[in-house]
Amino acid sequence: MTALRASAAAPQTAPAERFLTADYARPAQSLARRLLGQRLVRILDDGARLSGIIVEAEAYIGVRDRASHAFNGRRTARNESMYTAPGAAYVYFTYGMHEMFNVVCGREGEPVAVLIRALEPQEGLEIMSRLRPQPPAKPRAPTGAHPNTHLCSGPGKLCQALAIDRSLDREDLATSPRLFIERARPRPFPASLLVTTARVGVESCGDWAHAPLRWFVRGNPHVSRGPRGLTARG
DNA sequence: ATGACGATTTACT
DNA sequence: GTAAATCGTCATA
Q1: In this predicted structure, what is the pLDDT of residue A15?
Q2: How far apart are CA A214 and CA A195, in angstroms?
Q3: CA 20 to 30 Å from A18, out of A38, A50, A182, A221?
Q4: Whole-number Å distance, CA A128 to C1' C2?
Q5: Measured over all CA atoms, what is the biggest interatomic distance in chain A, rounded to whole angstroms?
Q6: Strand ranges (DSSP E) for chain A?
Q7: Looking at residues A35-48, what average pLDDT do you find?
C-alpha cells in the first residue's frame, strides 16, 4: 500500500518530524493534550509501517496520583520504566491478556506517564485487521457506519493492532526505529475539539477517580467509550 | 507459597 | 445491563 510516486521530480515533502526527548519532558497533563492529533508509528520487523492518529489519552501524574502504578513511590520490576527518561515507552501486561502502552514524561526520574487509549488508524489497516481478532460477522449498521472503529478504540486494542507488547517496554521513542511519534501537519483536529473528562477504569481511587485527566477528540468515532460528542471540562 | 486483583475486551442475558 | 476470560504482579505469610 505504498504511495505511488509520480516521478522522481515530484516535489519532495518534508520528512515527518519526530517527537524528541525535549518534547516528552513536560507534565503529563500537558503532554496528553498535545499528543492528541499526532501520529503514533510502529515499524514491524519486516518493514511494514502501521500508524494511527492519537485521539484519546490519559495522564498519570506521579507518586501522589492514587490511580498510578507509581502511587506512593511504588517502584517494582514492572513499572521500572516509569522512572526512566522522558520519551521511554512503558508497556505493561494486565488482566492476563492485554498490553497497555504509555509514554513516560515529566522530569527525569519522576514516574509520570501518559496512557495512549485510542487511535484513528491511518496506515497498515489490513495488517492491523490481521493482528486483531476478526470483528463479529453479524451485520452491523447497514449504511454510514464508520469502518475500522474496532481496531484501535481502546488501550488494549491499539496495542494488539500495532503489535505493541512488553518487548517494547523501555523503548526510547526519540530514537527507536520500531516505535515513535510524528508531528502530524497540518493538525488533523482543531484545538476546540479537545475535551477532558475523568479517567476510565479507576473508579476505586477516591478523589483521583474524578480528576479530569483524560483527553479526547470530541465526536471522533474511535474514542474508546463514554460520551464522545459532549463537551466536558477543558 | 499463596491469594487477590487488575489503567480491558468480549460475549451473552 | 452483567460476567467470563486469563495470568503476571504484588502484598502478605
Answers
A1: 84
A2: 8
A3: A221
A4: 30
A5: 60
A6: 39-43, 49-60, 89-94, 98-104, 113-123, 179-182, 194-197, 214-217
A7: 98
Which burial class, exposed, middle or buried, applies to A61 when counting CB atoms under 10 A from its CB (0-12, 13-18, 19+)?
A: buried
SS3 content of chain A, % helix, strand, coil (to 5): 20, 25, 55
Q: Which of A43-47, A142-146, A165-169, A170-174 is predicted least confidently?
A: A142-146
Strand B–CB A113 distance below 7 A: yes
Closest CA to A70 of A116, A115, A113, A25: A113
Q: pLDDT per residue over A11-32, tens digit each?
A: 677 889 999 999 999 999 999 9
Q: How distant, in Å, are the alpha carbons of A16, A20, A122, A123 from that of A10?
A: 17, 29, 23, 22
pLDDT at position A204 is: 82
Q: Is the CB of A150 under 7 A from strand B?
A: yes
Q: Are A31 and A37 in contact (CB under 8 A)?
A: no
Protein residues bordering strand C (Cβ below 7 A): A 69, 74, 76-79, 93, 95-97
Distance CA A171, CA A176 (A): 7
**Cell (9 digits) for A201:** 477504569
Q: Number of helices and strands (H, E) in chain A?
A: 4, 8
